Amino acid sequence: MKIGTYLLWAAMAVGTGIIVLLGYFVQLDQIPADGLVRNIFELRLLIMRWAVLLAAVSLGIGLYNLFLVHWTKISKQETGWKYSAVLIVTFVVTLILGLVFGPDSRAVLFLFNSIQLPVETSLSALLAITLSLAGFRLVAQRRDLISLVFVGTALLVLIGSGPGIISTESLFFGFFAGLRNWLVQVAAAGGARGILLGVALGSIVTGLRVLLAVDRPYGE
Amino acid sequence: MGGVDQIGLFILLLFVGLLVFFVTIDRRRPATFRPIRGYEALKGVIERAVEAGERVHLSLGTGSVIGTDSAPALAGLAILTSIAETTTMSDKPVVATTGDGAMAILAQDTLRRVYTEARALSRYSPISGRMLGPTPFSYVANLPILLASEDISVHVLAGSFGAEGALAADFGERQGSFVLAGTDDAQSQALLYATAEHPLIGEEIFAGGAYLNVGRVHRASLRVQDAVRMLIITGIVIGAVLSLLGVSF
């Protein structure tokens, strides 16, 4: 029974994956309109629409999971349960307001614009401070050649990026601006392409492992 | 064959063929990989965390399953398999978090499978795979509370991250945790290099399964990447030389 279920999931995942993948290699408009192949590729579009729907459903399941995690913390009075209580209250209030008045209502937009947006913007601002501190920490804790080159390059790019540190009128700015352009357009772009090439190869083999049912994150 | 991208199909079949080939020869000619500091250290710190009664946290990032950024999180699930196998019998087993509902379900399924294989399904908790927040920054905003309240001493980031990944890594550093972080985005990798103790550069995030001994297909897939990379580099060098010689295509 267990093997049967596992084979069913694997066959569904592999079959669906192959149909969707092959769709990228075949131009639909050049396939006869009434053939079996055409029907299979029409099925691909249907499967992709289902995927979008299922992703939306999974968001609901994820939110239920989020609720459950924090509800459990409150029930067991675990460390930080007060934060969980705040989350549960705001979760329920936002959900009720959204369901009763709609997601575009003034009440929901007020919550979004007055709480969520400022919090997320603050985190973005915190990122700038975090990165500055991380730069100092990098030099202090990891004193190898690559780290020093990394921090040195970041400083040069910052200096050459615009006014503020040195005047745009000065000769130095022209030098640093030229150096920055070279670093960004030649050295960094070349390195980034190399990284992207590796990432692309890694993504392909990871996808292939799922497609060949070697990796089965969808259960047994 | 009109309307068929034959080059694309050939490349796909090349990948499959090489994968089968390297799986076949894996026992006779086992692969030797260069050491990656982060993965080398990870094995030790997980064992120490289990002994000390501390928890390991794996973040699968904020990318979605149906998006183009799902590959690093799928690679992260292979790392989760390895970590879960080590921590199954621990008092505080691994917790996996994500910013996507579907990825949270995949994390739960991965954990359930590991517990089933270890004959310890009764110890499995569905909330050990969880969604922390549906947007990148709401996900990150929840991390400090998780890290502090769950006694996390090993903080692994293996998934798709934008700029928020730097904050996620930094929260772990502030907590004094061991931080291993990798993603697929080149710019985010630069941020992680600055903020994480053990950054994974380039495609190293996809090598987790091979380095943590998840299976021989993972080792073979790493060899496929290297083989195809060498083919591409050879092509680029030949193209550059021909271009210098004035030969145009």
Considering the chains and any ligands shown, give keywords for the structure.
heterodimer; A: 220 residues; mainly alpha; 80% helix; 0% strand; extended; B: 249 residues; alpha/beta; Rossmann fold; six-stranded parallel β-sheet
Strand fraction of chain B equals 5-15%
- Name the CATH class of chain B: Alpha Beta
Main sheet makeup of chain B:
6 strands, parallel
Distance between the termini of chain B: 24 Å
User: How much is the radius of gyration of chain B in Å?
Assistant: 20 Å
Q: State the total count of DSSP E strands of chain B.
A: 6
Percent helix of chain B? 55-70%
Helical segment tally of chain A?
Answer: 6
Radius of gyration of chain A: 26 Å
Would you give the CATH topology of chain B? Rossmann fold
Mean pLDDT of chain A: 86
Give me the secondary-structure category of chain B: alpha/beta
Strand order of the largest sheet of chain B: 3-2-1-4-5-6
> What is the 3D shape of chain B?
globular
Which segments of chain B are poorly predicted (pLDDT under 50) over 5 or more consecutive residues?
A: none
Number of helical elements of chain B: 9
Number of domains of chain B: 1
Measured between the Cα atoms of the first and last residue of chain A, the distance is 11 Å
Helix-strand string of chain A = HHHHHH
The major β-sheet of chain A equals: none
Question: How much is the average pLDDT of chain B?
Answer: 92
